[in-house]
Amino acid sequence: MSTIRITKEFSFEMGHALLGYDGPCRNVHGHSYHLHVTVLGKPIDKDGHTKLGMVMDFGDLKQIVKRVVVDVFDHALVLNKAMPTATTALMQQHFEKVILLDYQPTSELMVADFAQRIKNELPPDLILKRVLLRETATAYAEWYADDNV
């Protein structure tokens, strides 16, 4: 049986600000993010199996990614928890979905975080191969399993 990669795409809206950055992204701003998740495996070949011929049901992959990434980050304001406490407290007072991360919320670090969150939820016979996080129409960050062995 061939090994196959399947990919599911997602979209969500998120605001962030980059602590200490020397450009305009130090200010609170938002993006329409596009997330591509690629999983590797062998199609199920057990006769009578409800998922016969599938590496993974796209609906099952969707449930995982929505639960651990999209539903968490969609329409959230994401900040580095190293920001001044007065700033984060003010944001939390005025907005209901503020996420404080242990890292700078760049596409590069978020794609690595998202990959780990997704990997932790996949069935053991599947491999997360690639996660692409598109921040704008012309800019994205990618995580590849082969680069992170």
Could you describe the 3D structure shown?
The chain is an alpha/beta fold and 149 residues long. The chain has a single domain (4-71, 106-147), classed as 6-pyruvoyl tetrahydropterin synthase/QueD (Tetrahydropterin Synthase, Chain A, 2-Layer Sandwich), CATH 3.30.479. Helices cover 26% and strands 34% of the residues. It contains 3 helices and 6 strands; from the N terminus they run ββαβαβαββ. The chain has helices at 58-73, 85-94, 107-119, and strands at residues 4-16, 29-41, 76-80, 98-101, 127-136, 139-144. Strands 4-3-1-2-5-6 form a 6-stranded mixed sheet, with helices on both faces. The chain is elongated. The mean pLDDT is 97.
CATH superfamily: 6-pyruvoyl tetrahydropterin synthase/QueD
Q: Class by helix and strand content?
A: alpha/beta
Strand content: 25-35%
Percent of residues in helices = 25-40%
Estimated radius of gyration: 18 Å
Mean pLDDT: 97
Residue ranges: pLDDT <50 for 5 or more in a row?
A: none
In the CATH scheme, the class would be Alpha Beta
